[in-house]
Amino acid sequence: MSTLSQYLSHIDTAIKTQDSRQLSTLIEINPPNGQGPVRSQFQDPNDFDLFAVDEKFRPVVVAYLKLLKAIYVVNDIKKSFNNYIELVNTLNRAANTETNWINLPLMKACKELMDIFGVMEKSFPEEVQAKQPDSEFQTSANSSSLEILASTINNSFKLSLNDKNLDLKQSKRVDIYFFLGCLLRLYFRLNTLDMAKSVEKALKGTRFELPKFDKHLVDKSSAITYLYYSAILSLDDSEFNAAHEKLEQAMSLLAYIKKRTSVESQMEKLLVLYLPLTLYTQNKYPKPFIWKEFPILNYIYNESSFNYIKSGDVNKLNWFIQKFESFLLKKKLYLLFESLKDLCYINLLKKTVKIHAFITDSKGSHIVPFSAFTVSFNLSNSTGQETFNKQEIECILAVLISKGRIKGYLSHGNGCIVLSKTVPFPPLSS
Amino acid sequence: MSSKSIENGVPTEDEKKVIKSLEEDDDEFEDFPADTKWTVKQDPQINPDSLWEEDWEDDDNEDDFSAQLKTELEKHRS
What we know:
The complex is a heterodimer.
Chain A: H1 4-16, H2 20-26, H3 35-40, H4 47-50, H5 58-73, H6 77-95, H7 103-123, H8 145-161, H9 176-189, H10 193-205, H11 220-236, H12 240-254, H13 264-282, H14 288-293, H15 295-311, H16 314-323, H17 325-330, H18 334-359, E1 367-369, H19 370-380, H20 390-402, E2 408-411, E3 416-419
Antiparallel strand pairs in A: 1-3, 2-3
Chain B: H1 13-24, H2 64-77
């Protein structure tokens, strides 16, 4: 393929035969056999040249050839980015009335666009988030390159979400997690979690079937990426059960990996959130191999925070939350760790009840004075600045009873708690 | 109570590195490598159903804290 007319003829054939792979190759920036520089030298196609191509795809061809000139002739990364935005926008418009054969070229174009953005960001780090009032291709006034990129990918996502084809296999929705993963990643970079949550809302609102997170899912990488960001959104709203469910689905998909050493970084990112969420929602603790494979998790969880929770060490858990405050806030784990204090309290209460039973008549072990807990809480908090009085202990116990974490009742008059004889501390998951 | 806690002394060089890496860690979820291969069977070790220990409850009442608590509660009782 060395002339414009031959190139256009190939484009037309790819569209008519709905050949996804062929069309992808015909609009990629680094096509095989050194065709990129060759195509960049084509003259600008006129209406007569373009007559050979389906009308909807003519703007795609024009945008593509313009892009190649920016890359290979002008060698201008900012212009290349703007031209690529135009290419994806024209492709979005053309894809609107196509079936899901168009997904592959569209996904490859979105991926390349994000790669181009990455190169531009490395070259001009201060400019990518700056507003571009004079940009030729901006989608809205005063948008930064990153915002323009997110807006463009959002259009591709909406195209996928709004496909009304009832047959999922034939629908553009079949690749929705690719667009969702890209889009949420960009919204997180823009720090616009409200936008990310509105995408989630739109997804929940659809009445059409979406791909299931199971072994049949083809693009597991994108689904895992989406579930990771979606879980963080749930954490941001303190929806711990929903966040846990999403990460469990992500881990379940990740378990289909052939060689897990190749995705250690992704697995660690999931586990940073998944482990404390599972401890909180399911009261489960990971097997030791996790600590061996991920030394950082061993350090922040096994050897410190989880260990403090396990032994009911309120003081050290507080110390941990304070010391790692910025990390916990960044990961949206701060409120979860504040809630994990409940588990720490429970473990300290259990220890106190056990020792209290040992030194008193074991028949009355289910009746424990508040003062016993005051002793244990203050002992645990011996190096802390705060001290617990009976009222505070009574309050902590009342909260834990109301949350269903203790089965029993308080006797304010007698200054004691009367615990259930059968299950004083029900499993958290119940 | 825990004896391996990191606040018991000055953090080691390795610990300092961990804290630094956590603070500098990029929130972005990295793309999976382009050549990532998937199978039809799950890796049983990282399957969420088998990732957990049977029992992790702390039944150790022989540690220093428990001994101290026992002494304090006995004192308190008398």
